[in-house]
Amino acid sequence: MADDSLWSRRRLLGTGAAPWPPGRRDLPHRLWPSRRIRQRWRGDVSSTVRHNISSFRAQDWRPHFSSLTNGAILCDLQSRALHFWSEDGTIYRLYPTSIPLNEELTRLGRTEVVDKVVNPPWRPTPSMRERNPDWPEFVPGGDPMNPLGPYALYLSWQYYRIHGTHDTRKIGRRSSNGCIGLYNEHIAELFQLAKVGTQVLLI
Questions:
Q1: Is 64 one of the catalytic residues?
Q2: Which InterPro entries match (predicted)?
Protein backbone atom coordinates (compact mmCIF):
# COMPACT_ATOMS: atom_id res chain seq x y z
CA MET A 1 0.00 0.00 0.00
CA ALA A 2 1.02 3.61 -0.41
CA ASP A 3 3.25 5.07 2.28
CA ASP A 4 0.74 7.83 3.03
CA SER A 5 -2.11 5.42 3.68
CA LEU A 6 -3.70 5.59 7.10
CA TRP A 7 -3.39 1.83 7.06
CA SER A 8 0.23 1.72 8.11
CA ARG A 9 2.40 -0.51 10.20
CA ARG A 10 2.71 2.18 12.84
CA ARG A 11 -1.02 2.73 13.07
CA LEU A 12 -1.87 -0.96 13.16
CA LEU A 13 0.80 -2.18 15.51
CA GLY A 14 0.78 0.87 17.75
CA THR A 15 3.35 3.40 18.81
CA GLY A 16 5.18 4.08 22.03
CA ALA A 17 8.39 3.49 23.90
CA ALA A 18 10.23 0.19 24.06
CA PRO A 19 9.59 -2.20 26.97
CA TRP A 20 11.64 -2.75 30.09
CA PRO A 21 11.53 -5.90 32.24
CA PRO A 22 11.19 -5.86 36.02
CA GLY A 23 14.41 -5.86 37.98
CA ARG A 24 15.87 -9.26 38.65
CA ARG A 25 15.42 -8.79 42.37
CA ASP A 26 11.63 -8.66 41.81
CA LEU A 27 11.44 -12.22 40.46
CA PRO A 28 12.24 -15.60 41.99
CA HIS A 29 15.33 -17.08 40.34
CA ARG A 30 13.36 -19.83 38.58
CA LEU A 31 11.22 -17.20 36.85
CA TRP A 32 14.03 -15.01 35.53
CA PRO A 33 14.09 -15.10 31.71
CA SER A 34 16.82 -16.81 29.78
CA ARG A 35 20.09 -15.00 29.09
CA ARG A 36 19.12 -14.58 25.44
CA ILE A 37 15.87 -12.81 26.37
CA ARG A 38 17.61 -10.70 29.03
CA GLN A 39 20.15 -9.55 26.45
CA ARG A 40 17.39 -8.65 24.03
CA TRP A 41 15.54 -6.66 26.68
CA ARG A 42 18.68 -4.75 27.63
CA GLY A 43 19.59 -4.11 24.02
CA ASP A 44 16.18 -2.69 23.15
CA VAL A 45 15.60 -0.32 26.03
CA SER A 46 16.92 3.04 27.18
CA SER A 47 16.79 4.27 30.76
CA THR A 48 14.08 6.78 29.87
CA VAL A 49 11.40 4.18 29.14
CA ARG A 50 11.81 1.74 32.00
CA HIS A 51 8.38 2.42 33.44
CA ASN A 52 6.37 0.91 30.58
CA ILE A 53 5.99 -2.27 32.62
CA SER A 54 4.60 -2.00 36.12
CA SER A 55 6.40 -3.89 38.85
CA PHE A 56 4.96 -7.39 39.12
CA ARG A 57 5.67 -10.37 41.34
CA ALA A 58 4.93 -14.07 41.58
CA GLN A 59 1.41 -15.02 42.69
CA ASP A 60 -0.22 -18.09 44.19
CA TRP A 61 -2.96 -19.69 42.10
CA ARG A 62 -5.20 -20.59 45.06
CA PRO A 63 -6.91 -17.21 45.56
CA HIS A 64 -7.98 -17.27 41.90
CA PHE A 65 -8.75 -20.90 40.96
CA SER A 66 -10.37 -23.80 42.79
CA SER A 67 -8.01 -26.27 41.10
CA LEU A 68 -5.33 -26.49 38.41
CA THR A 69 -7.32 -28.86 36.20
CA ASN A 70 -6.04 -28.39 32.62
CA GLY A 71 -3.67 -25.70 33.90
CA ALA A 72 -4.47 -22.06 34.64
CA ILE A 73 -3.70 -18.63 33.21
CA LEU A 74 -4.19 -15.45 35.23
CA CYS A 75 -4.07 -12.13 33.35
CA ASP A 76 -3.58 -9.34 35.88
CA LEU A 77 -4.38 -6.11 34.05
CA GLN A 78 -3.30 -3.90 36.92
CA SER A 79 0.25 -5.22 36.93
CA ARG A 80 0.14 -6.01 33.19
CA ALA A 81 1.34 -9.54 33.75
CA LEU A 82 0.28 -13.06 32.76
CA HIS A 83 0.76 -15.96 35.16
CA PHE A 84 0.67 -19.61 34.08
CA TRP A 85 0.49 -22.73 36.26
CA SER A 86 0.65 -26.26 34.85
CA GLU A 87 -1.95 -28.83 35.88
CA ASP A 88 0.47 -30.67 38.17
CA GLY A 89 1.76 -27.44 39.67
CA THR A 90 5.39 -28.07 38.71
CA ILE A 91 5.60 -25.31 36.08
CA TYR A 92 4.96 -21.64 36.76
CA ARG A 93 5.64 -18.82 34.33
CA LEU A 94 5.29 -15.05 34.61
CA TYR A 95 5.26 -12.81 31.53
CA PRO A 96 4.83 -9.06 30.92
CA THR A 97 1.87 -8.24 28.67
CA SER A 98 0.09 -5.55 26.75
CA ILE A 99 -3.47 -4.81 27.87
CA PRO A 100 -6.58 -3.17 26.35
CA LEU A 101 -6.48 0.54 25.56
CA ASN A 102 -9.42 1.44 27.79
CA GLU A 103 -12.18 0.05 29.99
CA GLU A 104 -14.63 -0.08 27.09
CA LEU A 105 -12.41 -2.64 25.36
CA THR A 106 -11.66 -4.57 28.55
CA ARG A 107 -13.45 -7.76 29.53
CA LEU A 108 -12.89 -9.34 32.93
CA GLY A 109 -13.88 -12.74 34.26
CA ARG A 110 -13.43 -16.43 33.53
CA THR A 111 -12.96 -18.06 30.16
CA GLU A 112 -10.80 -20.85 28.74
CA VAL A 113 -8.57 -21.74 25.82
CA VAL A 114 -10.69 -23.24 23.04
CA ASP A 115 -8.13 -23.35 20.22
CA LYS A 116 -4.39 -22.99 19.57
CA VAL A 117 -3.37 -21.53 16.22
CA VAL A 118 0.05 -21.20 14.60
CA ASN A 119 0.37 -18.11 12.36
CA PRO A 120 -3.18 -16.99 13.13
CA PRO A 121 -4.95 -14.93 10.46
CA TRP A 122 -6.42 -11.62 11.55
CA ARG A 123 -9.82 -10.18 10.76
CA PRO A 124 -10.58 -6.85 12.45
CA THR A 125 -13.83 -7.04 14.40
CA PRO A 126 -16.83 -5.01 13.18
CA SER A 127 -16.22 -2.46 15.93
CA MET A 128 -12.56 -2.13 14.92
CA ARG A 129 -13.57 -1.56 11.31
CA GLU A 130 -16.09 1.03 12.43
CA ARG A 131 -13.40 2.92 14.33
CA ASN A 132 -10.78 2.38 11.62
CA PRO A 133 -12.51 2.04 8.22
CA ASP A 134 -9.15 2.15 6.42
CA TRP A 135 -8.02 -1.12 8.02
CA PRO A 136 -8.02 -4.23 5.80
CA GLU A 137 -10.74 -6.82 6.12
CA PHE A 138 -8.23 -9.65 6.39
CA VAL A 139 -4.51 -10.16 7.02
CA PRO A 140 -3.16 -13.70 6.52
CA GLY A 141 -1.12 -15.48 9.14
CA GLY A 142 2.61 -14.97 8.83
CA ASP A 143 2.23 -11.54 7.22
CA PRO A 144 4.54 -9.01 8.92
CA MET A 145 1.55 -6.66 9.12
CA ASN A 146 -0.44 -9.22 11.13
CA PRO A 147 -0.73 -7.90 14.72
CA LEU A 148 -1.30 -11.37 16.23
CA GLY A 149 2.28 -12.56 15.83
CA PRO A 150 3.26 -16.21 15.29
CA TYR A 151 0.98 -17.90 17.84
CA ALA A 152 -2.43 -17.31 19.40
CA LEU A 153 -4.52 -18.93 22.11
CA TYR A 154 -8.18 -18.43 21.21
CA LEU A 155 -10.50 -17.90 24.19
CA SER A 156 -14.16 -18.87 24.52
CA TRP A 157 -15.06 -15.18 24.36
CA GLN A 158 -15.59 -14.17 20.73
CA TYR A 159 -12.67 -12.20 19.27
CA TYR A 160 -10.50 -12.49 22.40
CA ARG A 161 -7.00 -13.92 22.10
CA ILE A 162 -3.72 -14.25 23.95
CA HIS A 163 -1.18 -13.73 21.20
CA GLY A 164 2.25 -12.50 20.19
CA THR A 165 3.20 -9.23 18.56
CA HIS A 166 5.81 -8.06 16.09
CA ASP A 167 5.80 -4.64 17.78
CA THR A 168 7.61 -5.13 21.07
CA ARG A 169 6.89 -1.52 22.07
CA LYS A 170 3.33 -2.56 22.88
CA ILE A 171 4.32 -4.82 25.79
CA GLY A 172 3.74 -3.21 29.17
CA ARG A 173 1.35 -0.66 27.69
CA ARG A 174 -2.34 -0.06 27.16
CA SER A 175 -2.16 -0.81 23.48
CA SER A 176 -4.60 -3.56 22.44
CA ASN A 177 -8.20 -3.65 21.26
CA GLY A 178 -9.08 -6.18 23.95
CA CYS A 179 -6.58 -9.01 23.59
CA ILE A 180 -3.60 -9.84 25.79
CA GLY A 181 -0.28 -9.52 23.96
CA LEU A 182 3.05 -11.17 24.76
CA TYR A 183 6.57 -11.04 23.39
CA ASN A 184 6.85 -13.60 20.59
CA GLU A 185 9.39 -15.60 22.62
CA HIS A 186 6.93 -15.79 25.50
CA ILE A 187 3.84 -16.74 23.49
CA ALA A 188 5.93 -19.46 21.82
CA GLU A 189 6.65 -20.95 25.24
CA LEU A 190 3.12 -20.47 26.58
CA PHE A 191 1.72 -22.01 23.39
CA GLN A 192 3.57 -25.23 24.23
CA LEU A 193 2.57 -25.18 27.91
CA ALA A 194 -1.13 -24.34 27.61
CA LYS A 195 -3.71 -26.65 26.07
CA VAL A 196 -7.29 -26.55 24.92
CA GLY A 197 -9.28 -26.39 28.13
CA THR A 198 -6.73 -24.39 30.12
CA GLN A 199 -8.58 -22.10 32.53
CA VAL A 200 -8.19 -18.35 32.00
CA LEU A 201 -9.08 -15.54 34.40
CA LEU A 202 -8.76 -11.83 33.64
CA ILE A 203 -8.73 -9.52 36.66
A1: no
A2: LD-transpeptidase (IPR050979), LD_TPept_cat_dom (IPR005490), Transpep_catalytic_dom (IPR038063)
